[in-house]
Amino acid sequence: MLKEAYSRPISLSDDTTPRVLPFHFHFIKKYGKNSFAWFGPNPMVNIMEPELIRDVLLKSNVFQKPPPHPLGKLLVSGLVTLEGERWAKRRKIINPAFHLEKLKVFTHKDGTGG
């Protein structure tokens, strides 16, 4: 899937999702905006509706994150991987960016990302 995605040229005005995340793009196109799949014993959940994304980001004590890959700990230390007090502090800093009007810019009229 990656080989096919990288075989075509891409312009900055194109939708980059099929190129950058071909598996996720195919998966969401096939199973819908809100879906899940099993990767061995681990579920992967896709949530594309802004209201549901907001709930997941605001209720960190309800939606538990899986333990990060050891290499991921070294490379990524953002809101997605943080828990507890560190998550709350970082979330408070970026809260203005999650205003609904600002998030609407990232969706097309048909509800797809882009």
TrEMBL record:
<keyword id="KW-1133">Transmembrane helix</keyword>
<keyword id="KW-0812">Transmembrane</keyword>
<dbReference type="InterPro" id="IPR036396">
    <property type="entry name" value="Cyt_P450_sf"/>
</dbReference>
<keyword id="KW-0408">Iron</keyword>
<dbReference type="GO" id="GO:0020037">
    <property type="term" value="F:heme binding"/>
</dbReference>
<dbReference type="InterPro" id="IPR001128">
    <property type="entry name" value="Cyt_P450"/>
</dbReference>
<keyword id="KW-0560">Oxidoreductase</keyword>
<keyword id="KW-0503">Monooxygenase</keyword>
<keyword id="KW-0479">Metal-binding</keyword>
<protein>
    <recommendedName>
        <fullName>Cytochrome P450 CYP72A219</fullName>
    </recommendedName>
</protein>
<dbReference type="GO" id="GO:0016020">
    <property type="term" value="C:membrane"/>
</dbReference>
<dbReference type="InterPro" id="IPR050665">
    <property type="entry name" value="Cytochrome_P450_Monooxygen"/>
</dbReference>
<dbReference type="Pfam" id="PF00067">
    <property type="entry name" value="p450"/>
</dbReference>
<keyword id="KW-0349">Heme</keyword>
<dbReference type="GO" id="GO:0005506">
    <property type="term" value="F:iron ion binding"/>
</dbReference>
<comment type="similarity">
    <text>Belongs to the cytochrome P450 family.</text>
</comment>
<dbReference type="GO" id="GO:0004497">
    <property type="term" value="F:monooxygenase activity"/>
</dbReference>
<dbReference type="GO" id="GO:0016705">
    <property type="term" value="F:oxidoreductase activity, acting on paired donors, with incorporation or reduction of molecular oxygen"/>
</dbReference>
<keyword id="KW-0472">Membrane</keyword>
